[in-house]
Amino acid sequence: MKKHDWKAGMLLLLAMACIAGLSCSQYADMATPVVLAPEIQEYTGVEIPQWIGFTTLHFYKQEVRRVNIVHDRKQIKLKRLMQDDKLDYSIVHSIQIPAVEQAELLQGTIVGASEKGLSMLPGGAGLLTLGVGLFGGGAIGRKIKRPGDLSPEEVDAKIAKEKASA
Description:
Layout: H1 3-23, H2 25-31, H3 38-44, H4 57-110, H5 127-135, H6 137-143, H7 152-165
Helix pairs in contact: 3-4
């Protein structure tokens, strides 16, 4: 084999290695420019790297993975918040139901059953309505005097005074 043939073979082998290296997808991605929307950087919160003054397809693919990771993390956080809210709601709701039932029972004892309304009839009425019915709600109402109301004697005296002056 000649010395000249050996150098030509090495040169050919080196040329083939360079072509193979440049045709590798990662090298091609590093040389392919891409214009990224600024929303991607805002969503991920990470500055997008550049290579020789421009963003490449290689960095774009990294950003796509980063966007997916950020999205998954946000979704997991939202699911946790929903689970926490459901738990808090169930705790509050389980406390709220007995409190309402106790208040309705107390109301039914004092005023009367809420489904019957305020009834003056003794059948199922509460202590308050029963007491008002027994002691005469009208009599109690007549005994209550508002400021400025006149008693029957004062009304008679006023009428007599008006008749005398007329």
